[in-house]
Amino acid sequence: MPWIQLKIDTDNQHADALSDLLMEKGSLSITLEDGKDTPIYEPTLGETPLWNHTVLTALFEADRDLAVVVEQLKLVPYLGSDFSYKIEQVEDKDWEREWMDNFHPIQFGKRLWICPSWREVPVPEAVNVILDPGLAFGTGTHPTTALCLEWLDGLELTNKEVIDFGCGSGILAVAALKLGAKEVTGIDIDYQAIEASKANAERNDVLDKISLYLPEDQPKDLKADILVANILAGPLRELAPLIAEKVKSGGHLALSGLLKEQANEIAEFYTEWFDMDEPAHKEDWSRLTGIRK
Ligand SMILES: C[S@@+](CC[C@H](N)C(=O)[O-])C[C@H]1O[C@@H](n2cnc3c(N)ncnc32)[C@H](O)[C@@H]1O
To answer: Which residues line ligand 1 (CB under 6 A)?
Structure first.
């Protein structure tokens, strides 16, 4: 079915009211976007902040007469008769397919490749992880995941026990197993992530070496040689004592999901338990590594 969309420049004061109004006028979905490249990182729980300059896009079925909607909106006091808007036809695409078409095999470090399950493996003799992220985070295209994959590729993993804290699609857990780890425990608060990790482990024939848990179900005495956690700075700060407890003395740690400006503070925090290295960076993101004291 083809679509038509109305784009309106608004602000954080009026975006919600305008969204409600457009839903009343028959809009099928509303998208709010940053109008001026002002990123919002880690809002506190329950908070949904909006940008000062917000672009609202309201999607309608193509046969809706948007000229009529615009005339009605001109009567809204906070918009006024000369408010700024754009009407655009939306091509009827298979959006899921579109995303899949843009995801290609990528190499990380020397040995490791992440290959979408619907593509041909370009280097069969490499260490290939065949991946479908499903509804979970983790394709390798995000710098935080890439930093962890490069780190894993550079480690000697043979016969090692690994914990992947915040396993998402299972990309790091499966990569560790394909790189030689003996067993991996994946932990995630999201059930979809547990499901995706399981499917990817199966896809890569390593299901017998992976254990997956929601945090409340994880074994109490869990300890590993290597722990990787790609979650945001907030949880990494809160979980520090718990994470430290799970790494054997002399074991390796990698923390990702941190912004560059957060790296030193988090590194400082972890020095209580780990000898920390200098951070590594990719775009705006950082990875911290260390050895358990
Ligand atoms: C950025 S994704 C990383 C996924 C994957 N490991 C990767 O590197 O691409 C973070 C994952 O951590 C999970 N997560 C967030 N907070 C968590 C917590 N406190 N305990 C366990 N998992 C958590 C999220 O559900 C999400 O799947």
So the answer is: 136-138, 144-145, 148, 164-168, 171-172, 187-190, 193, 215, 230-231, 235, 257
* Distance (Å) from CA 88 to ligand 1 centroid: 36
Which ligand 1 atom is nearest residue 256's CA? 8
Q: What was the ipTM of the complex prediction?
A: 0.99
| CATH number of the domain within which 140 lies | 3.40.50.150
Question: How many angstroms does the Cα of residue 165 sit away from the middle of ligand 1?
Answer: 7
d(CA 138, ligand 1 centre) in Å = 9
Structure tokens at 56: 């609202």
Q: What pLDDT sits at residue 36?
A: 63
Residues 114 and 130 occupy one common structural domain: yes
For residue 208, say whether it is annotated as part of any ligand binding site: no
pLDDT in the model for residue 38:
55
Domain residues for the domain of 59 are: 3-92
Low-confidence ranges of the chain (pLDDT < 70): 1, 35-50, 93-97
| Pocket residue to mutate for ligand 1, from 131, 137, 153, 239, most atoms within 8 A of Cβ | 137
- Name the E strands within the chain: 3-10, 29-34, 54-61, 85-90, 106-108, 112-116, 127-131, 161-165, 183-187, 210-213, 224-230, 247-259, 274-276, 280-282, 285-292
pLDDT digits (tens, 9 = 90+) for 136-192: 889 999 999 999 999 999 999 999 999 999 999 999 999 999 999 999 999 999 999
Does 264 count as an annotated binding residue?
no
Q: What is the pTM of this model?
A: 0.77
pLDDT (tens digit, 9 = 90+) per residue, 254-269? 999 999 999 999 999 9
Q: How far is CA 189 from CA 132, 173, 193, 194, 223, in A?
A: 19, 16, 8, 8, 19
Residue 143 CA to residue 151 CA, distance in Å, equals: 12
* CATH number of 56's domain: 3.30.70.120
